[in-house]
Amino acid sequence: MTKKRNIVVKIGSALLANLELLTPRYGFLQRLLEDIAQLRAEGTNVILCSSGSVALGLRIIGETPESAGVSDKQAAAACGMPLLLNAYKQVGHEFGFDIAQVLLTLGDFEDHRRFLNTRNTVHRLLESNVVPIVNENDTITTEEIRVGDNDRLAAKVAQMVGADDFVILTGVDGLYDRNPDEPGAKFIAEVEDVGMYMDATKGKSTLGTGGMETKLLAANMAQEAGVTTWIAQGEVDHPVSSVLDGSRRSTKILPHPNPLSGWDSWIANRLQMAGSLVISDSLAASLSGDRPIRREDVISMTGDFTRGDVLHIYDSKGIERARGLSDFTSEELRVLTSNPDTQAEQLLGYRTKGEVVRSANLVMLENRHLLWDAPEEIVGQV
Ligand code: GLU
């Protein structure tokens, strides 16, 4: 049996909520879900990642996009989510399919066991021909534990399900080499290296939380996992299929020709930094995926992490060289590094080889990866 094509479609708040009234835009939903029904009829699995819960809930709690603070938005999301899902459910039924709500938080992506559990659930829904509608569970997520934007959340979903295509529907027709309102802005139809455009894309949308910058960060995650990303205006008939068949303008971000394995892609594509290490320059120069990072290699560290968290590994200049899964908690590692002459077993009370990151759990970063700035604490130290 051939594998079904999987696509993830991310839909921005401004398409789903009327900017003035903050009510659902049923006309848009009709056009979107008619197209999705058609794609499904052609044998494609579709997963939607939908924003809009905050925008749709604001009026109920007497707030506006401008007036709402963090806790207002959390309350608004609780009010808006049923409205949003109800709209999808009604219109989905018109086109003959069922939808399901999948609310996720940062931990569902960053913790590998939860990542796999979530993936199983999404696949189970697809097996039953139900369209999963994914959103962040904004109501219960505080600043420290949230993804924050649905662009990267949707990219993680695309990676999770091994999507073929990731379509980001938004209010602009794609990527420009500078702010599209500036004279002379040039449209970019195809991108290989998103790093070239990161500086040109600062700025945010009015209703959602993302902007072109988060879209490019998302596209970078997708390309690492072998997924093709498309950024396009959503306000048209057949908003998804017209992008995929190339019949209208969009920005296509190419998948990397040698994508990372599922495991390496999970390690390398982070949403939040749990902790970081600085290693010696000599080790940084010779570091490869075949050699572990040992306790004696660690010059300094930051963060409060647990076993199984991914660490960002820097050289002494603060340049990120690798990411890898920690075999120790930050407490254990602090004890190990501050007592270099005492055996690990004696310090920790269990047998261990003292490998902080095993070679199988280490991913070397290359030019194609967007590197993270080193936390200030470690830049100051080196
Ligand atoms: N989760 C937010 C919402 O449902 C949207 C976040 C975003 O727009 O990126 O309103």
UniProtKB/TrEMBL annotation:
Which PROSITE patterns does UniProt cross-reference here? GLUTAMATE_5_KINASE (PS00902), PUA (PS50890)
EC main class here is: transferase
Q: What is its EC number?
A: 2.7.2.11
Per UniProt, residues of the Aspartate/glutamate/uridylate kinase domain are 7-231
Q: Which GO terms describe its biological process?
A: L-proline biosynthetic process
Enzymatic reactions: L-glutamate + ATP = L-glutamyl 5-phosphate + ADP
GO cellular component terms, A-Z: cytosol
Q: In which pathway does it act?
A: Amino-acid biosynthesis; L-proline biosynthesis; L-glutamate 5-semialdehyde from L-glutamate: step 1/2
Q: Which family does it belong to?
A: Belongs to the glutamate 5-kinase family.
Name of the featured protein: Glutamate 5-kinase
Q: Which organism is it from?
A: Qipengyuania flava
Q: Which gene encodes it?
A: proB
